[in-house]
Amino acid sequence: MSVAALSPRRLRWAVTDALVLTGRAVTHWTRQPVELLIGLLFPVLLVLMFGYLFGGAMAVPGGGDYREFLLPGMFGLTMAFGLEATYTAVATDTARGVTDRFRSLPMARSAVVAGRAGADLLYSAAGLAVILACGRLVGWQWRNGMAAAAAAVGLLLLLRFALIWVGIHLALVLRRPESVMVLQILVWPVGFTSNAFAAPETMPGWLAPVAQWNPLSATVAACRELFGNPGWGGDSFAAQHALALAVAWPALLIAVFLPLSVRRYRRLSR
């Protein structure tokens, strides 16, 4: 049988195996509902803190409602902060030998990492739905119609999907769940060194370009534009081409870290 004839079968095999492992993660969530609820409600806590505790001290560029300015930034941060959960799940399976058991089974090599990516994307979509509903309750709204709002949600999930592969790769490299602190040290500065809360133009000269070219900044700026919410604006290339960069950055991250994750998984010692 030719390779061309085998390829569709192998693809179906890989997709089926990935779906089975995605279902495994969903089953874990149903058996640990408290942990699931805490993860989903944490972004809501952030919205309430920033929206009500600090909102009175924030000035919206060009005027307008602060919560409409805040929420797209919170949506983007929620996508970034979920990286620790991805890392912990993969590193825990690796440390406990679960990954080695999967490697001994007749399944597609890519299924384990693809299944984890699919499960985490479902979890992220649920978290995004919760924070969107919370935003509506506190007065946020989109103003450019459903199509533009759906495009903004798509960009947020695209960023999350890209970051999932970053988390999977780092977990397969470090392999220790307790090393998640290293990841948190990276995620939080990257999350706040963006345009989510402050205009890059107000930052020190050396830091402003970092914030402008932050992938999170591109997604947040593009979402503000699509939702019709107030934003920082700016004359830089990154500010003027936020929509293009909101697609280009995640695509680049996926192109780099997806094959690296699959390769690293294949090379794990038994």
Distance between the terminal alpha carbons, to the nearest Å?
A: 32 Å
* Fraction in beta strands: under 5%
The SSE string, one letter per element, is HHHHHHHHHHHH
Coarse structural class:
mainly alpha
Average pLDDT, all residues:
83
Shape: globular
How large, in whole angstroms, is the Cα Rg? 20 Å
- Binned, the helix content reads over 70%
Report the strand count.
0
Tally of contiguous helical segments: 12
Number of domains: 1
Main sheet record = none
Q: Unreliable segments (pLDDT under 50, ≥5 consecutive)?
A: 1-6
Describe it.
The structure is a single chain. With 270 residues, the chain is an all-alpha fold. The chain has one domain. The chain contains 12 helices and no strands. Helix 4 packs parallel to helix 7 (145-174), helix 6 packs across helix 7 and helix 7 (145-174) runs antiparallel to helix 10.
Give the topology, please.
Blueprint: H1 3-31, H2 33-53, H3 66-81, H4 83-95, H5 98-104, H6 111-137, H7 145-174, H8 180-192, H9 208-212, H10 215-227, H11 237-240, H12 242-266
Distinctive features:
mainly alpha, Transport permease protein, about 270 residues, 12 helices, cell membrane, antibiotic resistance, transport
